[in-house]
């Protein structure tokens, strides 16, 4: 064993029971363990909630959505919103992009559903049965009835059905606001369709269940006055949602500036930004615990330098080089930091795995859609916390080690 490491271990964990420096070292290990463990646990909780929220939204939203820009060779602005006219050629281009698994045209717009005298403003989507199954999780969310989207059918959310007292087989009227802006200058009759409820879905999302409805593309095209063979969006599903930003760029490069291409993150920018801010704030606050523990290591090393000046002088007199003295204190601080960081990482991983397996922290299922606190351990968080803790620890060893290396052996041994 090298003498530097041997002395570092002896200085850090002296066998004397009341050694103050040893007590500080133990407290530093405890602080590092608590800080790194808490960081891993909290980041895993954020990952868990992020995955739950992402799965809920992505179950219905596409990974990438293509809309028409204000003008372009394959778009038309003859209606209230620009639409994509050359749908077939755009679909061929999109499906040729690597990692794109499905793409389907859709028509979106706001409409008013009326059942008896109960009105409800909804986001109505016109899409084919096959397209809905390929680019969304609508087919897997049907609670009653079936996913039937034809010229006289509509599928509504569970909360919307409860609010309008709808059941499978009931009929309702759908009114479109398209063209009503001309009501002040000319007589306008609202566009209306009578449709039958073929299915009721539950998305585990109050916003979607209460305000989204689906019908066939022919119905939506007539209600929103969209030209034949034109659509308002092309919804894209990718192999992995984490690739959506990269695929968005590749699609935009192929289609050109006449189209707006947005990923899932762009569609939910506010939600995603809030989640990221909360994550970083929690990381910074909890990392202060690691900072306090690292400062304790700095204090214990500084005290060791003052207490062991005689030993340092003796080592120098025996021929120990300056670098050797510096390494003693670098090894001492690194040893304490390594033990504390490793203990905290192990503690955090154990708690996360136990929560995944047994769900020790339950949630109220009447409020939340999940039975227990969600956690998800990601290797990048584990690596970031471990490296960050060790770097901060090693940084705190630099000043004490340099101070020890500058001790004059003649002065240290003057009275010996």
Give the helix level as a range of percent: 40-55%
Question: What's the count of strands?
Answer: 12
Number of helices: 14
The main sheet orders its strands as 4-5-10-7-9-8
Question: Could you give the distance between the termini?
Answer: 29 Å
- Which structural category fits the helices and strands? alpha+beta
Low-confidence stretches: 72-79
Question: What's the helix-strand series?
Answer: HHEEEHEEHEEHEEHEHEHEHHHHHH
The overall number of domains is 2
The description of the largest β-sheet is: 6 strands, mixed, barrel
Global geometry? elongated
Task: Provide the gyration radius in Å.
Answer: 32 Å
Task: Quote the average pLDDT.
Answer: 82
Strand content: 15-25%
